[in-house]
Design brief:
With about 475 residues, the chain is of the alpha+beta class. It has three domains: about 10-50 and about 240-315 and about 425-475, FAD/NAD(P)-binding domain, CATH 3.50.50; about 110-220, protoporphyrinogen ix oxidase, domain 3 (Orthogonal Bundle); about 315-425, Alpha-Beta Complex (Polyamine Oxidase, Chain A, domain 2), CATH 3.90.660.20. It has 17 helices and 22 strands. A seven-stranded mixed β-sheet has the order 8-7-18-19-20-17-21. Strands 12-2-1-16-22 form a five-stranded parallel β-sheet, covered by helices on one side. A three-stranded antiparallel β-sheet has the order 5-11-6, with helices on one face. A hairpin with a 2-residue loop joins strand 14 and strand 15. Helix 2 crosses helix 17 (about 460-475), helix 8 crosses helix 9 (about 210-220) and helix 13 (about 305-315) runs antiparallel to helix 16 (about 430-440). The radius of gyration is 23 Å and the shape is globular. The N and C termini lie close together (about 10 Å).
Length: about 475
């Protein structure tokens, strides 16, 4: 990061939102401006947002995100900067694979099938996930022409449209849809390829075919099978809340205000911002980073900039629930030979996916226990979130028992709800975000950060926080002469 200094009058800065993006932004502001007055406002009783770790009975339970992709460097670099480098651990060596439910049976994701790109013929032709008709359609992918509009830099289409067009309906319904649902909890008929998998467009533009692109990648030794990809997911040995605690601990002299929702954010005539907790409590700041979900950011900014508010309002959100179930290993007849399973919507089940946490990472449960997280709801089944906690836990138990051959009740069952926490990157999302960023740039001392914009993963959130902090100090004219 660029070296910075404070102005003659020490600036006062605010970060609104205490999730991973907001905490990273605050940490980076403190590194860039050591003498600034810094306040962080969080509406809930704790920091961390969807990073929530619980511990009980020898269990380490990640209630939200459980890992991050280390090929995107921001999160790994932050962990090392905070002294957590030695705590970064990869997934277990075996079994590095995902499973897909089809006709009531679990099947391995074919080796080499990564982000809609089939890199190996053999596994795709031998899998029982596809009929021979589906396999022949896949082989014909190299003969499929591309739309003329693909040449446009801002071209976009839905994942459903793209995957069906290139790979066929079977590959989309039985493989692409469930694998992406496990990440984005999204409706694939609206999910943007440009926002979630831009390399798919790049491959089609350059080679006219995903298969030809995969063959070219293999020749250049740039390919990675599904097992190798899972090896790129890492976590912290003692839980991801260690990252949250370390960020707070390494941001000295920051005033943290928990249980403090902000009701209004108002620009003033002297290019400052008033942050209102209530009509009676209003505080002036030189700069503000809003690290909130888009709906909450809309509430704060719509009166300041109606066009900005309208743009933020166009980012929809989905809700989900996670049922955390613990069993004795001898209760489960399934071999659990993967890190988890995803469930295609065409299977007619009421769960989206299940992650075998104690199989995926070491130290998550005693050796004779199995910790499984079951995901319910999302964009395709929002009505399930209207059920009570007990009802959702029961449906998760029932579905899991039928699929994995589980006997008797779990030793422990918990439920965590995540209401409107997953932004939905619909077709045109990147153009929408470009417009939002242009509108924000018109307001000196204001920046946005979070997973609503350019990536939902932990590394993207960290990068979002870093970038927002850098832009804020630059916009306030605090860059050292000759730097930047």
């Amino acid at each position: 990061m660029t070296a910075l200094h404070t102005s003659p009058e020490t600036p006062r800065l605010a970060v609104i939102g205490g999730g991973i993006s907001g905490l990273t932004a605050a940490y980076r502001l403190r590194k860039l401006l050591p003498h600034a007055q810094l306040d962080l406002f969080e509406a809930s009783e704790r920091l961390g947002g969807v990073l929530l770790t619980r511990r009980a009975e020898g269990l380490l339970i990640e209630c939200g995100a459980d890992s991050f992709f280390n090929k995107l460097p921001a999160a790994v670099e932050l962990c090392r900067e905070l002294g957590l480098g030695d705590e970064i651990i990869p997934t277990n060596e075996e079994p590095r694979r995902a499973l897909i439910l089809h006709d009531e049976q679990l099947h391995r994701v074919p080796e080499g099938f990564v982000q809609m790109r089939p890199e190996k013929y053999g596994p795709m032709l031998s899998t029982r996930l596809l009929s021979w008709r589906g396999k022949l359609r896949l082989l014909a992918e190299r003969l499929i022409s591309s739309p003329k509009e693909l040449a446009n830099a801002d071209y976009d289409e839905s994942v459903a449209s793209f995957a069906t067009r290139r790979l066929g309906s079977e590959v989309f319904e039985r493989m692409v849809q469930p694998l992406l649902a496990g990440v984005y909890t999204a409706d694939p008929y609206q999910l943007s390829v440009a926002a979630t998998m831009p390399t798919a467009f790049e491959a089609e533009r350059q080679y006219g075919s995903l298969i030809r692109a995969a063959l070219a990648a293999r020749k250049s030794n740039a390919s990675a099978d599904s097992g190798a990809r899972y090896g790129s997911f890492v976590t912290l040995r003692n839980g991801l809340d260690r990252l949250i605690k370390a960020l707070a601990d390494h941001t000295p002299n920051m005033n943290i205000h928990l249980n403090t929702p902000i009701t209004k954010l108002t620009p003033t005539a002297n290019q400052r911002w008033t942050v209102s907790q209530s009509p009676e409590i209003e505080t002036p700041f030189d700069g503000v980073i809003v690290a909130l979900p888009a709906p909450r950011a809309t509430q704060l900014l719509a009166k300041t900039d109606a066009l900005l508010g309208d743009s933020l309002r166009k980012i929809p959100y989905a809700s989900s629930a996670v049922a955390v179930l613990v069993y004795r290993r001898d209760q489960i007849s399934d071999p659990l030979d993967g890190f988890g399973m995803v469930v295609p919507s065409v299977e007619g089940r009421q769960i989206v996916a299940a992650s075998y946490s104690s199989v995926k990472f070491p130290g998550r449960a005693p050796s004779d226990r199995v910790l499984i997280r079951v995901f319910v709801g999302g964009a395709l089944q929002p009505e399930l979130l209207a059920k009570s906690d007990d009802e959702i836990v029961q449906l998760a138990m029932t579905e899991l028992s039928e699929i994995l051959g589980i006997r008797d009740e779990p030793l422990r069952a918990d439920l965590v709800r995540w209401e409107e926490k997953m932004p939905q990157y619909h077709v045109g999302h990147m153009q929408l975000v470009d417009g939002i960023e242009s509108l924000v740039a018109k307001h000196q001392g204001l920046e946005l950060a979070g997973n609503a914009y350019r990536g939902v993963g932990i590394p993207q959130c960290v990068q979002s926080g870093n970038s927002a902090a850098q832009r804020l100090v630059e916009s306030l004219g605090l860059l050292c002469p000759g730097d930047g």
